[in-house]
Amino acid sequence: MTRVMASGVFDLIHPGHISYLQQARSFGDELIVVVACDETVRRRKHEPITPDYMRAKVVENLKPVDKAIVGKNSGNIYETVAEVRPDVIVLGFDQTFDEKELEEKLAAHGLGDIKVKRATETADDLNATRRIVEKIRNMGGSQ
Predict the structure, then answer these.
(1) pTM value surpassing 0.85
(2) Where are the alpha helices (DSSP H) in the chain?
(3) Using CA atoms, how far apart are residues 132 and 113, in angstroms rounded to an integer?
(4) According to DSSP H, which parts of 26-86 are helical?
(5) Which of 20, 56, 61, 140 is the most buried (most CB within 10 A)?
(6) How far from the centroid of its chain's Cα atoms is residue 115's Cα?
């Protein structure tokens, strides 16, 4: 059984998220998704639209996903990887990690031989969360 790990914010689910999770699932038999905790989202991106526990609940109920957990606020991704124990980690097309470098760091942290793959961008990624939020903001005065 091959366990796959994917991660992200998943604030407003859109087709780009679905594509990412479908691609991640194709690398194994079980998909565990780490949903960024609220503190991490605030630190790295923006104020979350929905709380982490709600985002995890939505993600866990998507067809490709077997389980979703909320990531830790420690800033130590290796702690979460040790908890999940994946065989493969699938990065989103826009996540900033370098695949080979991450594989080396995982091994250096004693986490074994974890393969790191990258999902490809799809046309549906044009509906990214930040673009959806911007569109909603722009609609504010027009009713």
Answers:
(1) yes
(2) 15-25, 38-44, 52-60, 77-84, 99-108, 129-139
(3) 38
(4) 38-44, 52-60, 77-84
(5) 20
(6) 16
